[in-house]
Amino acid sequence: MKKGFKIPHTYVIIVAVVLLAFLGTYFIPAGVYQRVQDPKTNRIIVDPDSFQYVEQAPVKFFSFEESHLFSAVHKGMEGASSIIFFIFIVGGAFAMIQGTGAIDAGIGRLALKVKDKGILIIPIMAFIFALGGSTIGMSEEIIVFVPIGIALARALGYDAIVGTSMIALGAAAGFSAGFANPFTVGVAQAIAEVPLYSGFIFRVIMFIVFLIITCWYIVSYAAKIKKDPSLSIVAELEGKNDATLNLQDLPTFTIKHLLVYLALIIGFILIIIGVKSYDWYIQELASIFLMMGIFSSIVCGISPSKSAANFVEGAKGIAFGALVVGVARAILVVMEQGQIIDTIIHNLAMGISSLPSVFAALLMYLVQIILNFFIPSGSGQAATTMPIMAPLADLVGVSRQTAVIAYQLGDGITNSIIPTSAVLMSYLAIAKIPYEKWFKWVAPWILMNIGAGAVFLIIATLINLA
Fold first, then answer.
1. Contact call for residues 328 and 371 (beta carbons, < 8 A)
2. Mean pLDDT, to the nearest integer, of 244-267?
3. Considering its fold, how many domains does the chain have in total?
4. Residues above pLDDT 90, as percent of the chain
5. What is the mean pLDDT of residues 317-343?
6. Which of 50, 183, 227, 253 meets the CB 3.0–4.6 Å disulfide criterion with 34?
7. Does residue 435 surpass a pLDDT of 60?
8. Could you tell me the sign of the dihedral formed by the alpha carbons of 39, 41, 43, 47, in that order?
9. In the 3-class helix/strand/coil scheme, how is the chain assigned residue by residue?
């Protein structure tokens, strides 16, 4: 019996691209642009009129004396080390905060307060998780909250779709806007060499719009099935359901947990001030996240050993995304050594430079949407694509900030439908919602958000968002 096609592991896909780049150094003509300093931003950019072909410099398969194909991964890790360490530290710090129980207790208290508020529970829960998605990159973390969402929804006469989506799609809406997401926007902006968290107000507006779309979509469905439960996408699942969650068993919210939330608020205020007034970069940001994690552990009475274990567990959990940045950087290393990256950028620019810059931005968006199916890791996709997209943006009249937005929207929106997303498949398994039913239900939401994202990209291009 034949097995169905299975999407390869993300690392396999990225290594395949490294191999393609390696072969490309033998067949693609070598060429270079001159880099110059932009007097307005002091950023090193491509001089669009300086491209010239140079002598071919293919990368060796192996060599005792020179860099070769197999040393590219190590060089990639070295080149991306600051970003990799940033991801590890932030992931570990958030695990220290999660280990205090403050997040679980806060959500639990909220759930108890709104359980009698009827349909208002949907926008309230969606907003809370959207904030999580947009600030701490909440993704895998939502899995543990899905059973709570389903319990609340069923208690109010809704179904598992409503309970799952107000958690998952709320987080996805915030993740896509990512106005303070260190794992996607932070990484992409660092690679694109634009100021960290610049374009903040624009992303907050995106956040509001995506959240409104999400709340309207879920509330409309919830009202319909409340009136006629047979219209539920998972009516047969609801008929078989006998599992309940006692909300009274959720952790009690204490003054210690309140102090954790205050630490988070103060930490993000410090980050905003530091980035805006003191040109903070990822090293300073990582230190603030670490301080928040340590302070949270101390005020909640977590022992030093347990805090350290939480940090290591968090770093371990984020290792996939952190290390994929370095592996993906090997693509850039190979193309730079073979001097073909500028040739690729030149030809891409020649292909789309005759188009209005708006269409160039939308093409970038489409490329990121397609790539997200194969590289669902946000930081990995940033590391794979931004080294090409950033200089390409310089050449086609699109700001690098717009290129970052094209990436984050292409990466974030479709995470709620692509079967290669481990997070999606995990929370659907917990909710017992068949993928095909979820696909049918969530597809219109995806299309609406893709459309909204296209509008935002057009606006960003027209105003030359910096």
1. no
2. 81
3. 1
4. 44
5. 87
6. 50
7. yes
8. negative
9. CCCCCCCCCHHHHHHHHHHHHHHHHHHCCCEECCEEECCCCCCEEECCCCCEECCCCCCECCCCCCCEHHHHHHHHHHHCHHHHHHHHHHHHHHHHHHHCCHHHHHHHHHHHHHCCCHHHHHHHHHHHHHHHHHHCCCCHHHHHHHHHHHHHHHHCCCCHHHHHHHHHHHHHHHHHHCCCCHHHHHHHHHHHCCCCCCCHHHHHHHHHHHHHHHHHHHHHHHHHHHHCHHHCCCHHHHHHCCCCCCHHHCCCCCHHHHHHHHHHHHHHHHHHHHHHHHCCCHHHHHHHHHHHHHHHHHHCCCCHHHHHHHHHHHHHHCHHHHHHHHHHHHHHHHHHHCCCHHHHHHHHHHHHCCCCHHHHHHHHHHHHHHHHHHCCCHHHHHHHHHHHHHHHHHHHCCCHHHHHHHHHHHHHHHHHCCCCCHHHHHHHHHHCCCHHHHHHHHHHHHHHHHHHHHHHHHHHHHCCCC
The mean per-residue pLDDT over the stretch 148-177 comes to: 89
Q: Is residue 60 part of a domain?
A: no
Which residue range(s) make up the domain with 233? 16-23+39-46+69-462
Q: Which residues contact 98 (CB under 8 A, 6 or more apart)?
A: 104, 141, 310, 314
Asked whether residue 124 is domain-assigned, the answer is: yes
Domain assignment of residue 351, yes or no = yes
Span 180-205, average pLDDT: 91
Confidence band, pLDDT 50/70/90 cuts, at residue 388: confident
Would you state the pLDDT for residue 54? Answer: 93
Residue 64 included in any domain: no
Residues in a beta bridge with 37: 44
